[in-house]
Amino acid sequence: MLTDATHADVETLWNYNHMGHELRPCDVGIGLGSHDIGVATCTAQLYHRGMFSRIVFTGANAPTTVDRFPRGEAVHYREHAIELDITADAILIETRAQNTGQNIEYTRQLLADSRIKVRSAIMVSRPYQQRRVFATCKKVWPELDVICASQPLPLQEYLEIIGDAKLAIETMVGDTQRHELFAKYDYAIPQELPDSVRAAYHRLVDAGFTSRLLPDT
């Protein structure tokens, strides 16, 4: 059970990491692999709404996903989308990527190798990963017109669906850390970090939500 203060800090990071983009039809929908099967659900829903006619799911495995998705994130996402009435021939999968930069880089190469011209994309991710996806995409694929999307869920409902609040919060803290760290190492474009977000981040670190932090060396 989270204290009210901790829940408020988590909600601050949650809101900051949403981009608030308005959806519109794009050339492709790209579902980025993670521990969250809701990424595949959201991608399928957007496909059925006519937001794109082709899907790419991208992702191998990470320590936090290998038990949930033993055959790989993209493979499980594809299977789930097919269960949601997406035709198999509408889906491409990229099965090597192990981080967000690789998700984007390898997907770009897959589409080029498949001779599929893409000028715009809806990037579907965990809700609190949107800002990092945007910042990374603008560095790795700067000419792409990118819109970020996720399942439109309130924080508490999302934590209940994931079933592991600690994992979700630690990943959210890690994603927030990466904004400055990855800009420093030129992996992503810089993102402004408001004082309120910085303070909430440090309180969550002090509270022990640290397993997804990277060393700053």
H/E element sequence: HEHEHEHEHEHHH
Total of DSSP H or I helical runs spanning 4+ residues = 8
Here the CATH topology of the largest domain equals Rossmann fold
- Count of individual domains: 2
CATH top level label of the largest domain = Alpha Beta
Principal-axes geometry comes out as: globular
Q: What separation lies between the terminal Cα atoms? A: 34 Å
Q: β content, as a range?
A: 5-15%
Which parts are unreliable, with pLDDT below 50 for 5 consecutive residues or more? none
Helix content: 40-55%
Give the tally of β-strands: 5
CATH architecture of the largest domain: 3-Layer(aba) Sandwich
Please give the order of strands in the largest beta sheet.
Answer: 3-2-1-4-5
What structural class results from the helix and strand content?
alpha/beta
Give Rg in angstroms. 17 Å
Annotated CATH homologous superfamily of the largest domain? HUPs
Largest sheet: 5 strands, parallel
**Averaged pLDDT:** 96
Describe this structure in words.
- The protein is α/β, with parallel strands linked by helices and 217 residues long.
- It folds into two domains: 4-15 and 154-206, no CATH class; 21-149, Rossmann fold (3-Layer(aba) Sandwich).
- 47% of the residues lie in helices and 11% in strands.
- It has helices at 4-17, 38-48, 73-83, 100-113, 130-140, 155-162, 165-184, 195-206; strands at residues 28-32, 55-58, 91-94, 120-124, 145-149.
- It has a five-stranded parallel β-sheet with strand order 3-2-1-4-5, with helices on both faces.
- Helix 2 (38-48) crosses helix 3 (73-83).
- The longest helix is centred in the last third of the chain and has 20 residues, at 165-184.
- The radius of gyration is 17 Å and the shape is globular.
- The protein starts with a helix and ends in an 11-residue tail after the last helix.
- The model has no long low-confidence stretch (mean pLDDT 96).
